[in-house]
Amino acid sequence: MNNHVKSTITTDNYEPFMVGDKQAGEVHWLTTTNSNGEATYSGLWRCEPMTFEYEFPGDEMFQILQGNLLVEIAGEDSINLQAGDIVSFDKGIKSTWTVQSSFKKFFVISNC
Prior knowledge:
Blueprint: E1 15-19, E2 22-33, E3 39-47, E4 50-55, E5 59-66, E6 68-73, E7 79-82, E8 86-89, E9 94-99, E10 103-110
């Protein structure tokens, strides 16, 4: 029984990432469950410039590897994120994402 997961990325390892019926970039899944079999997602997400609505399906933490992103949350200041930034958002937050340049992040989503 393996107690680790290893992945190697090529362009063929990405699949469309859907938000409702709209494609919002592409995802490469590292995990979709944790060691207890509970939903816990991790992987890489990439996207070219676009704007879309996004409700966080769980507690999400990510590090920006490339590009710039503006996250808008009603009643709060906009959050500008760029390569090197690490951020965390709580489950259920409704937001608008504006991907401003070719973008890539490593993410972990728990508490789904």
